[in-house]
Amino acid sequence: MGIHADQVPENKNKSVADLTPDHKSGSKSILQFVDNRPEAVAQRKLQRAADNSTIQREPFDKDGNDLGIKGQAYASNAVDSGVQKIAHSGVSTWRDSLHKFQPEDPNDWLPTRMRKYVYHKGVDVVGDNFNRIADTTKGFFKGIGDKVIPSTMDRLNPSHIVTALSNPRLAHRYLSQRKDQLLQPWYLYKDPRGFLQNKWNAGKNSLSNGVDRFSELDGGLRNKTAHGGRAFVDMIQGGIAPVAGLTAATFALYNRPGPRKKTSNAFNSMFPRGTMRGVFAREPLTKFMFTNPIAKIRGNPVLSAGLLSYLLMTNMGKSIRESQELKQRHPNTYGRLEENNRDVVGAGRQIGLMDSIVSTSQQTE
Questions:
Q1: Whole-structure pTM over 0.70, yes or no?
Q2: 317 and 164 in contact (C-beta within 8 Å)?
Q3: Residues near 238 by Cβ (< 8 Å), separated by ≥ 6?
Q4: Does any domain span residue 57?
Q5: DSSP per residue over 313-342, as a string?
Q6: Predicted local confidence at residue 15, as pLDDT
């Protein structure tokens, strides 16, 4: 019996679904046709945007709730928790290793059992105090985040410029002390003996100021340890926060379309591709720390000069205000700084520490 050439044998093992092309599989057919109609192209763009939007999601808590604007706090708390675990784990490991050490000296006049007790008791006391200090770092990164906006606004406050202009004598003293800080290596080279004598006197005055700050802490020795740790952490947060804020503000200022294009042109002009210095300048760390900031200044000279002048004037005015405040709040500390020729540039550190002691005193156990 003859069979028609176009007849296809029926495969009863395949369903209708199996006969349809599988668009979800990773394999590609030999012939593919792309629909380039305008509406099809627009539909594909919308689909890609929708797919990308599902990737950029806020963190979720353990119950699956979207944290939304609390994402920053969620991340900072996670970092803080990790730092706490590392600190306490390190103290625990240190204590265990010291406990394993058994001091043995038969010639010692103290009985061996008593010496062991004193040794292990000392290890426990020191370990407990280290744990108390580690506890003061709780919420460190969250504290920085809370201080970024107010501290940055204070640094950029234009009223500081008015303070600097209305106190020319203190402004001149500020510049003189900054110059003195920069010339310290030269003073050491020129007169080593006089340099070391000045450092000795400055060290004694700094120690006296430290004793005054320690006396302002609450409670006995253990509570002073915890309170001092909290105050120190708070002061460090207050120093990091404005730097982070000013860095973010400067980054936003230079990344507007106009300045960013000028920076790119200056960078390519100074460090052309295909050259040795171009390759070196494009290394990530070198570009971040050196070559890109140079390109920003070269490409935007007016903006850079204005920004630098504004920051210099506001920093000068803020230092003058802090110097005047310290003279009123603690004349002895001010006098020691004046003896060290740091009464303007060094007043802010003392004011920051004093404010941190006051703000953290209610948290002491």
A1: no
A2: yes
A3: 147, 151, 352, 355, 356
A4: no
A5: HHHHHHHHHHHHHHHHH-HHHHHHHHHTT-
A6: 45
Q: Which tens digits make up the pLDDT trace of 270-285? A: 999 888 888 899 898 8
Choose among 219, 223, 211, 216: nearest CA to 132: 223
* Nearest partner of 244 among 1, 128, 76, 41, judged by Cα: 76
Tell me how far apart the alpha carbons of residues 40 and 46 are, in angstroms, rounded to a whole number: 10
Residues 83-87: contacts with CB under 8 Å, at least 24 apart: 83/137, 83/140, 83/141, 84/134, 84/135, 84/137, 84/138, 87/134, 87/137
Reduce the DSSP state of residue 60 to 3 states and report it.
Answer: strand
Range of the domain at 305: 140-365
Q: Are the C-beta atoms of 80 and 142 separated by less than 8 Å?
A: yes
Residue 161, classified by CB atoms within 10 Å of its CB into exposed (0-12), middle (13-18) or buried (19+), is middle
Q: Are residues 158 and 196 in the same domain?
A: yes
User: How many CA within 13 A on the CB side of residue 347?
Assistant: 29
Regarding whether 244 and 126 lie in a shared domain, the answer is no
Cα separation, 308 vs 35, in Å, equals 55
Q: How many domains, the chain?
A: 2
Please tell me the distance from the alpha carbon of residue 325 to that of residue 338, in angstroms, as a whole number.
14
* Whole-number Å distance between alpha carbons of 365 and 231: 14
